Amino acid sequence: MRGQRAACIVCLGLALVAPASSLAATGAPDPAVTLVQQGAEAYKAGRYVAAAELFVSAFELSKAPIQLRNAAKAFGKAEQWPQAQATWQRYAALPDLSPAERAEAQAELSALKQRKVAQQAQAQAQQAQAQAQAARQDAARAEQQAAQAERLAAASMRPAQASSSPVVAYALVGTGAAAVLTSAVLFFHANARLNNLDADLAMTNGAGQIDGISRDDAQSELSGVQAERTASAVLLAVGAASAVAGTALWMLAADDAPPVAASLAPLQGGGYAGLSLKF
Asked: Distance of alpha carbon 212 from its chain centroid, rounded?
């Protein structure tokens, strides 16, 4: 069987230089001989697609299976996988093939199928990695926007009135701190999910397919990460602005408050001291 397969592998070269007498023995007309010679020249020159088309034309005239096999090999050499697959299928369907020739055709078709599956898996992995990179970029932009919002809030802060209640300032600071803490929790949780997703995407089987996570689950996980990153950025901006506003309000209220003076003075009735507060 291995000897027959080796003979089939080298028969391409034999067919390319076959003399006209050998083709005439199979009943091939002279135009088929010309097409085979032209195909051989194109193949040697590296013009594999043109060679394959010439071999197919030679097969249409001569009905010699070897020319269809030559065409399939030439298409494969040109990496024209759909045409190569179609030509191998046509070759395998010929009724007068030997068992070794038919086995070779089936092996070539199986290899083409595995190549297609591997290419699809690689494309899916690249798409998932591109989506993960886009999610990281979106998160970075959200962080920049949050920092910019914090700077704008601090720059545009108007002086609060001196009569503002300190309770409002404390509430703003507390609310801001809570928002910033929640933002940090969401941010680290989103990072953990993204790292887990990267690990799942890196898990592939022997065929190169991702088996750590399905495509739909990966897209759903990316959407969840983006949502958490966005919410984290919004909470960070709101919390920072609230904390800055509360701090500024508290400081302004403390600076603008009138001083309080206390003094002891004797009462008019004599003998007693009174506490006097001056605002």
From this structure: 15
Per-residue pLDDT tens for 131-170?
A: 888 888 888 888 888 888 888 887 776 554 444 567 777 7
- The first and second tokens of residue 115, run together, are 């190549």
Q: Where do the structural domains in the chain lie, given as residue ranges?
A: 2-97, 120-265
CA 213 to chain CA centroid, nearest Å? 13
Please give, one letter per residue, the 3-state secondary structure of 190-208: HHHHHHHHHHHHCCECCCC
CA–chain centroid gap for 226, Å, is 14
**Tens-place pLDDT, residues 165-202:** 677 777 877 888 898 889 888 888 888 888 887 887 77
Q: Which amino acid is at 184?
A: A
The C-alpha atoms of residue 179 and residue 67 are separated, in whole angstroms, by 74
Query: What token pair was written down for 200?
Result: 């799942």
